[in-house]
Each structure stands twice: as structure tokens, then as C-alpha cells.
Design brief:
globular
């Protein structure tokens, strides 16, 4: 597996797929704080280039968290639809991205395909997409949810406001909710995740 790319005369080498996945991420303050972000935009592009050539089988064989160490990884791997996976395991991440964005591929096709993919495969493909491409891809699959109202219907704009505050300050949380509602984006669901686990 190739874990290096040369851009503008500089060769970027990555230790493993986990580092490639982290550095291919768009810039995020959390990644910087964790020390896993690409140091420069050029390094990020190099990581995306390397990631685009990785096969789905290589991603399955090298999960971000080792199979023996993590129950979630075991569940995902053991629940994989093997006939579907076998049909696409030779694809590169770039080919998966192009398949997802293909106008001829519909939501039902993607839902079927998803049963043969691991989380790393899906995340890797998303890392190669711009925000616009993510919207195009996400639009193909309808996710309709019901609570006190219904979200996800065609032709409706909805939002989920999920304010967080470092000290669970009620005024801070309320200010975030009011700001979100002020955008007037249609139906809204509020989700409040406390910092502490004290109800």
C-alpha cells in the first residue's frame, strides 16, 4: 500500500492509514488540539491523494481501531454483507466517491451498497468530497424521522440545534438556541447534550 505522495517537489510520507485518514480531514480545531491535523494545506492535499488510491479492502484490513481491541469495530466487521463487499473490495476510495456522486446511482442503490461497507470506507469517501458534493450525495437518501414533528420530507427545510456549553450554563445554551431559531430555517429539533452526566 502506497502511503506517500509528492506535491510541488515535497514528498509527504504517512506512517499508516490512520494518519492518512486524520490528515485528509478538512481543517478542524479539534484535530489540531489532538495533534492529528495536517500541518499545511499541501500536506492535507497529499493525504487526500494517498487516500484516493487506497482500496476498500486495504481499509477493511486496517481498521482505525484494531478488531481485537474494540467491540464496535468487531460489530461492524462481523455484520458486513460479504457478497456486497466482495463485489467492491477492489475499488479505490476515489472510485467509491465517483459511484456515490453518479447521477445514475439512486438512494436505494446506496443503501444496499452501504451494507457492504465499513465506517472507514464511508468516511474516507466523504473526506474526498467538498461540502457541495456531500450535499449532492446526502440528498439521494431520504431519512425521515418523527418525534413531536417530522423532519426529512422532500421540499422541507429542517434543522437540528444542538448547543453545547463548557459549563452547562443555561443562559449560554439558551443564547445558542435563540441564535439557531433566528435563522428561520424551518422545522427545528433541539438536542441538548450536557457536559456532565448529572441529569
Amino acid at each position: 500500500m502506497k502511503l506517500a505522495a509528492t506535491l510541488r517537489g515535497t514528498t509527504f510520507r504517512f506512517a499508516d492509514l490512520k494518519e492518512v485518514l486524520a490528515k485528509a480531514n478538512e481543517e478542524k480545531s479539534g484535530d489540531k488540539l489532538a495533534g492529528v491535523a495536517a500541518a499545511t494545506a499541501t500536506e492535507r492535499v497529499a493525504a487526500k491523494l494517498v487516500l484516493s488510491e487506497v482500496t476498500l479492502q486495504e481499509l477493511r484490513d486496517n481498521p482505525a481501531v484494531p478488531y481485537d481491541d474494540d467491540a464496535v469495530t468487531r460489530l461492524i466487521q462481523d455484520d458486513l454483507n460479504l457478497p456486497i463487499y466482495e463485489g467492491v473490495k477492489h475499488w479505490t476510495v476515489a472510485k467509491l466517491r465517483e459511484h456515490v456522486l453518479d447521477d445514475a446511482v439512486k438512494g436505494d442503490d446506496l443503501l444496499r451498497l452501504s451494507r457492504g461497507l465499513t465506517s472507514e470506507m464511508i468516511a474516507a469517501s466523504a473526506k474526498l468530497m467538498s461540502n457541495l458534493y456531500l450535499v449532492v450525495a446526502a440528498r439521494k437518501i431520504r431519512v425521515v424521522v418523527h418525534c413531536n414533528n417530522t423532519l426529512g420530507l422532500p421540499g422541507r427545510l429542517s434543522s437540528r440545534l444542538q448547543p453545547n456549553h463548557p459549563s452547562d450554563d443555561v443562559d449560554g445554551i439558551l443564547a445558542s438556541l435563540k441564535e439557531g431559531v433566528s435563522f428561520g430555517v424551518g422545522d427545528a429539533v433541539f438536542g441538548i447534550n450536557p457536559v456532565t452526566n448529572n441529569p
